[in-house]
Prior knowledge:
The protein is of the alpha+beta class. The chain is built from nine helices and ten strands.
Amino acid sequence: xxxxxxxxxxxxxxxxxxxxxxxxxxxxxxxxxxxxxxxxxxxxxxxxxxxxxxxxxxxxxxxxxxxxxxxxxxxxxxxxxxxxxxxxxxxxxxxxxxxxxxxxxxxxxxxxxxxxxxxxxxxxxxxxxxxxxxxxxxxxxxxxxxxxxxxxxxxxxxxxxxxxxxxxxxxxxxxxxxxxxxxxxxxxxxxxxxxxxxxxxxxxxxxxxxxxxxxxxxxxxxxxxxxxxxxxxxxxxxxxxxxxxxxxxxxxxxxx
Length: 256
């Protein structure tokens, strides 16, 4: 969604949030390693390791995450994926993707965050049907030429592209990522990230300041949770309103 680049840049500036990024990548590696700990034989593990490297996760963290599945690290725990779905005011839809070693603890934490903002849980599938899993590539337009990249993207099988917060967001079918990614890299284009994301088919435009503030604070609360791997939302908040919300948050201390 539109918030990703903003959230990622904020993460890179705060040590505590950097730790969260490292921890999530370690979980992604460990989860992928459940299907085989050799990255040459396990493409999911290979991709998880590459993502971690792009996020500047230290090699020792990566090695430690893999060793949990080789028997060398005796602190092995079984990890599970779980999604939680909610609708909010104005039919804003949210899916929270988690990786956890304790689903009861995680479910309680996620419910608590939603309840703080007066949102109610919906049945599995009631929200996810408006989202599709797609590969998304982000390119930082402050270090890449937009016109050049757009011309190159037209030569690929990418399904869509648009600009968000100084990033070019390229959407590709799951089967087309490798070809799209390798083609852009062969043209010396620097990719900020390439990851699986949930792309919504129906958007909900948010124009009210208070609603935008609550959504932003809630999404930030999820980002702070150790078990949350990603948050997917169909809210559309224009850049001017989102900037006002962030300015208000920075200047005010308050609780929900």
